[in-house]
Design brief:
The protein is of the alpha+beta class. It is 29% helix and 27% strand. The protein contains 16 helices and 24 strands. Mean pLDDT is 78; it is low at 129-137, 203-207, 231-239 and 488-507.
Length: 601
């Protein structure tokens, strides 16, 4: 644990952030390769980031190497060489939206205020792409957040516990992140970016440490400089490093094996240093700063000084916006069990009004907000979040939702500060006003109020609605999506609120006249005693009753892609029976059995 006056910075790196942001908004994209591309002046599409979340398991060991900066044609050729031509044909190509990426990143930064009040957007990961004689093109494949945790890590049980909390909390929200803590902004950024490389170095150092006798002085040096890894031996995180803790004052020794790219140097300077045999930070630190100044100017010595902490490198907080914060500090700590509910509700209402007043003037409402109760030293703050189905400016409704959430949360022993921060806001929907006095709340608004109260009472994961997806297989053509979703609530993959829209965009579903009205959750095997000459049922038993087939229509063949696991091959028919029923049944082309999948009316 670092001292009180020691600066400690935590960097949260978000690998492939452009793709992660798309997957948060479009969960259906996980089933196919997705490429986020940028179009240059010549019209050529270059890959900014790519991923295939649900890639085929048969060829898991041979992952395609597609670097940011590849042209789209090159990337598809590499993908086809590993997974086949069909994988390249189903790939999704999405244009880069850097503004949307930054907006969602800012919302995630406001969510990180639970760990510290000082949060900033970190630098981009810049890589160069060489296209023959063409000029190098820089592309960004990841973004990061940097948090000053010098005085807040103790609230979360120490720096190691804080790293685990950050990584696993984001992972529970569907966000892959890597985190690192060091003394400087540059060192923590480099450690988070190269967490997997540090894991390999730590394992090598541990093996070397075990071979040395206890009396050897090098053993104590290795013990002193070894980076705290983010996993236990034998755990699955050994294969996927997620967090790194650099000891105070040891960034030179602990991170000397990292590549030069982790120092945020320009691509041409990195190439020039590589040509003379300087490939790592440790090799660069051994060179005199005077010679570096003469050869490359002030950029390289400045970055080295920032890495070592020799120069001041202040943290620039998030840019101010219309999303406001209101807080109230008590003169003396108030015991949570003794606080009066009426007074606490009045305090929350006053803070909510302060946050809403600037938004009302611009016809905007709150989509999600965060309430934070700070405690005395040594205890982590209590944070709750409230997400809404649609933006609202109704103070009473928001206060009711907050109080409902507090009924499910144990108040801290002592409360020293109460703050409310607007996480996201949206344009208020237009509603027709009543001409005469009377009830002003419409049926739609009452329905939204009910949904918000259910989410506050039961949690966002318990209130879902079906959403259609573009999938040919009936079982996978819908998803149960939470009706309210913001970053910070349980497993919500809807970023529409973060993007300023009230609804995410889903692909056009596969529907038609052949789809039944009622679809079973899974196909049910039915008893078919006899078949006709063409192999179709003459009659069948369902729910203890015999149904005689009068006429049939079909077949409609449905066959899934090979990379989704076991191949699904079915011939669907519509059967009309003597009882007036219409059934949607299929015959499996492998087992030759008949299944019922849905009914019409």
């Amino acid at each position: 644990m670092s001292g009180k006056n020691t600066l400690r910075i935590m960097t949260i790196s978000l690998p492939r952030w452009p793709v992660q942001r798309q997957l948060l908004q479009q969960p259906g994209f996980r089933e196919s390769p997705i490429f986020v591309c940028r179009q240059n002046a010549r019209g050529v599409l270059s890959v900014v980031s790519w991923a295939w979340v649900m890639s085929p398991t048969k060829r898991k060991r041979s992952q395609p190497v597609i670097q940011p900066g590849f042209s789209l044609s090159e990337a598809l050729a590499v993908l086809a060489s590993v997974y086949g031509q069909r994988a390249s044909r189903v790939a999704r190509v999405i244009p880069e939206d850097s503004i949307g990426d930054v907006r969602v990143l800012e919302a995630l930064g406001r969510w990180c205020h639970r760990f510290s009040p000082l949060v900033a957007i970190g630098p981009e990961v810049i890589r160069g792409a060489d296209h023959g004689k063409a000029r190098r093109q820089s592309v960004c494949s990841a973004r990061s957040l940097q948090v000053d945790i010098s005085d807040t890590a103790r609230f979360f049980g120490g720096e190691s516990s804080l790293l685990r909390t950050v990584v696993w909390t984001l992972a529970a929200r569907g966000i892959h992140a890597r985190a690192a803590i060091a003394d400087t902004l540059a060192a923590s950024w480099a450690a988070a970016l190269c967490a997997d490389r540090i894991a390999a170095t730590s394992r090598h150092s541990l093996d070397e440490l075990q071979k040395l006798p206890r009396s050897n002085p090098r053993r104590s040096a290795l013990l002193k400089n070894r980076v705290v890894r983010g996993s236990r031996h034998g755990h699955w995180l050994d294969r996927q490093q997620r967090w790194v803790l650099v000891p105070p004052g040891r960034q030179r020794q602990s991170l000397q094996s990292l590549p030069l790219q982790s120092l945020q140097l320009p691509v041409d300077i990195v190439d020039s240093l590589t040509e003379v045999g300087v490939n790592s930070i440790g090799q660069l630190l051994r060179l005199p700063k005077v010679s570096l100044q003469e050869r490359f100017g002030s950029i390289v010595p400045l970055q080295v000084s920032r890495f070592l902490g020799d120069v001041s490198d202040p943290l620039t907080p998030l840019h101010g916006s219309e999303l406001l914060v209101a807080n109230h500090s008590f003169e003396m700590p108030v015991l949570g069990r003794d606080i009066d509910s009426t007074y606490f509700r009045a305090l929350i209402e006053r803070l909510v009004r302060q946050c809403l007043q600037p938004l009302v003037n611009t016809n905007r409402g709150v989509s999600s907000l965060q309430v934070r109760l700070d405690t005395n030293e040594g205890h982590r703050p209590t944070v709750i979040e409230v997400g809404l189905y649609k933006p609202t400016v109704q103070v009473r409704h928001l206060v009711d939702l907050i109080m409902l959430r507090f009924e499910r949360v144990r108040l801290p022993r002592e409360i020293v500060d109460v703050s409310i921060e607007v996480m996201s806001a949206g344009t208020l929907p237009y509603r027709q006003q009543n001409l005469f006095r009377g009830p002003t709340e419409s049926g739609a608004s009452r329905f939204e109020t009910l949904l918000n109260r259910l989410v506050s009472r039961l949690g966002s994961g318990a209130v879902v609605e079906p959403r259609l997806l573009a999938d040919i297989q009936p079982e996978a053509s819908w998803v149960a999506a939470p009706v309210v979703g913001v970053i910070g609530l349980s497993k919500s993959h809807r970023s529409g609120h973060l993007l300023g829209s009230s609804r995410p965009h889903f692909s056009k579903p596969v529907v038609g006249p052949s789809r039944p009205t009622f679809l079973l959750s899974s196909p049910r095997l039915i008893d078919v005693p006899s078949l006709s000459a063409d192999g179709l049922p003459v009659h069948f038993r369902w729910k203890g009753q015999f149904h005689v087939v009068m006429r049939s229509r079909g077949p409609e063949r449905i066959e899934t892609a090979w990379w989704r696991g076991p191949t699904v091959r079915r011939d669907y028919y519509i059967f009309e029976t003597d009882r007036g029923g219409r059934f949607w049944m299929f015959r499996g082309l492998r087992k030759r059995s008949w299944f019922l999948h849905g009914t019409y009316g």
